[in-house]
Amino acid sequence: MKLFKISFVIILILSQSNLYSQLSYKQNFVVESDPRVELMSIIFMLAGNPEYSQCQLPEYKKDVLKYFDKYKEHEAVKLAQENRNKNGVSYDAVMSMAVHLKDAFTVELNLPLSQNPEKLDKRWKPDNAQKFLEALKDFVSKSDFRKFITEHAEFYKETDKRLTRIINRYAKLSWYESFFGRKSSGQFILVPGYLTGGGNYGVSFKDDGNRIDQMYSVTAIPKVDSMGVPLFDPQMIPTVIHEFCHSYVNPVVYKHINELKEAGEKIFPFVSKKMYEQAYGTWSTMMIESVVRACVNRYLIRNSNEAAVKNDIQYNIGRGFIWMDDFTKLFDEFENNRNSYIGLDEFFPKIVKFFNDYSLIIKDKIDAIEKEKEARFAEMREKGPKIVAIQPANGDEKVDPNTDIIIITFDREMKDLSWAFNRGNGTFPTVDGKPAYENGNKVLKLKVKLIPNTVYEFWLNSETNLGFKSADNMPLVPTLIKFKTK
Predict the structure, then answer these.
(1) How far apart are CA 434 and CA 415, in angstroms?
(2) Of the listed ranges 125-134, 161-170, 196-205, 353-362, the one predicted with least confidence
(3) When you count CB atoms within 10 A of the terminal residue's CB, does the N or C end of the chain come out lower?
């Protein structure tokens, strides 16, 4: 990324953990690229964590690998692998440690492990965490991590400016206080996740002794421009709202977790496959996500349109939260009776009752949903459009990384300006512009940028996103596309 490399003078203006211009907003809101997040992301990418190996920024990823690849056998990387394999340190646990560091260069903790930091993810066991931090300090020193961050400072700064503009224009941050019934004394910090692929993480740091309360949302990069700089659009706002909701919701749910246990253990087996696909491995995580997603839907009710509200419910149902339509309606009572329900804590008996009741009928609900789904998919397979050909070929493991266009040919005319590319488990191609139909809307072309030795995977349509349709509105049955570059 030579375009963004800068001179030594930049070092003079770098602070410790917040190196870049911090733009403050109402409600103590800050957008900032964070070297701590980059450090932990790089370590766990080198360690092989798949969720940190799906970077959507080809040039940035190339820079990272070129600079750090020779350190992939470092002790810090090996200990990251050990912590993942033995204790499940992955996903948000990685980011939890990041925001507990004072900075990315001395690698000291804001609070010592002996004080059992309240917000540090419990997958970090004290002894293992201490060994990891000691090795991490050595990694930072030997790799000259500061140099890498300095060389990309202008790149980070431009990304922060772009993200700031979107948040300023579209996010209604005053909603948190009005909905949750309390004014936050903490600071909201939105961090671009350059190496987090499609992952978004809500993590926090809290130090009651020094009255510090920081709520972070590490947000994925959805797309980039022709120069490799991240682009953002209003569609990301619900995700940002979601991640910051965790800081309000999680403590309340944990307070009442034993009351949810019976219902949670009954419900989880019926939706566990969907939950595992999203790295939600326990019934308690399922419960937290249920409440957060209901809150986001209430945000959309107040700040968006009816179509967005309905689409959000259908999306969540497709992700396994099949109760979401009924559950979000429960919050009508919450919002219409704020004298009785100052916040979620006072309303929680209603939430517990909802899930206790739902646990008694979930089997019938699942059976009905599966029956309807099978009938719908059978109709798509029979009457829907078919893919005649695709380039690169589906399943090809020797695709030329210089390939710059994906071509999909259908057996009939397709509805124009209607697509649905959905992420799979592999890397999603970096897109250069919008898809476009040709040849009577039978051939779709999508310009992309690929990188070597990478598994690409995406779905055309999904259960909840059926954008690919024939001209007469019959959807394409969800189809997985997967190939690997040489």
Answers:
(1) 15
(2) 196-205
(3) C
